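Lest this sound abstract, we think one record worth quoting, the chain in one-letter code, the fold tokenised, each line plainly labelled:

>
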Amino acid sequence: LDPDQDGFGAYWGTIEHRQALQELSAWLLCVVFRALGYASVSARGLMEFVNYDLLCLCSLLRGLFANRANDSSLPHDMGQIQGAALEAMAGLTAPELAFPFSDGTEAGIEEQNRVLDFYLEVLCAAVVETGMLEAALEAALARATSAEKEGARA
């Protein structure tokens, strides 16, 4: 296996394939967010949706954030979807997400700290491997710029 080819970016393939996966991510999360209600979208809810698979969640979010809100092939409320996703993404570091099936009584503090450290390490690896942070920052900047332009028009 070539180390230069051994990255998540290699799985995105051609530009057409990448765009198709990004649009699929956007539509899938659109259905989920509409079913939950935008105000109810949370990091915990998204983690439950992906069965606590951080790489899967970061991949979906990266695909969602890589899309632009004014694309006609995407949901009309893409801006709201991305906004809800940005808010939920900020909650992924919550300690309770490291212990999804625990009541907190079966391990000492040292073991809980070890599990939390491991969870955060896996989260960071998933964010880096998928490029989610860059896509999220670009989406946040695009939202801020469009909000600024709309504010200037009003």
Q: What stands out?
A: The radius of gyration is 17 Å. The first helix runs from residue 8 to 11. The chain has seven helices and no strands.
